Amino acid sequence: MSYVRRFDHVGITVADIDAVTAFFVALGLEVEGRTFVEGEFLETVCGIPGSRTEIVMLKAPDDGTRLELSRFVRPDFVPGSPAAMANELGLRNVSFEVADLRAAVEWAAGQGYGLVGGIGEYENTFRMAYVRGPEGIIVSLAERIG
């Protein structure tokens, strides 16, 4: 028996929700909604009494899985490790298929976001690279080549 019906979204807590939203919108995602959440529901789910968050929900052009960005208004956020490498425990990366990997990497570099390593090729099927995006988020970009 499977308990999962579908993959709904990935959530990332950020400090500067406007800057991170702008990065993902420029990459090609669309803002689906933006709101504040507080009260019993949030306190129960996240286990932080008195919490309030601002949430931006982003969707890909294919209308598939969403990306939820949240910023804690209260309490203040706790800094993470913005230089985390791929072997550090936790969320490893957010991955997107792109039409032109080199163009996407050049765009990211122009925005001040560099490669974690280099551009690799997997079995003549995909070309892929990790970009260290805003707030240290590793954004995996992959281009189908085969």
UniProtKB/TrEMBL annotation:
It comes from the Bacteria. Keywords: Lyase, Metal-binding. Pfam families: Glyoxalase_4. Residues 6-144 form the VOC domain. The keyword Lyase applies. The keyword Metal-binding applies. GO terms for biological process: L-methylmalonyl-CoA metabolic process. InterPro entries: Glyas_Bleomycin-R_OHBP_Dase (IPR029068), MMCE/EMCE_epimerase (IPR051785), VOC_core (IPR037523). This is Catechol 2,3-dioxygenase-like lactoylglutathione lyase family enzyme. It comes from Catenuloplanes atrovinosus.
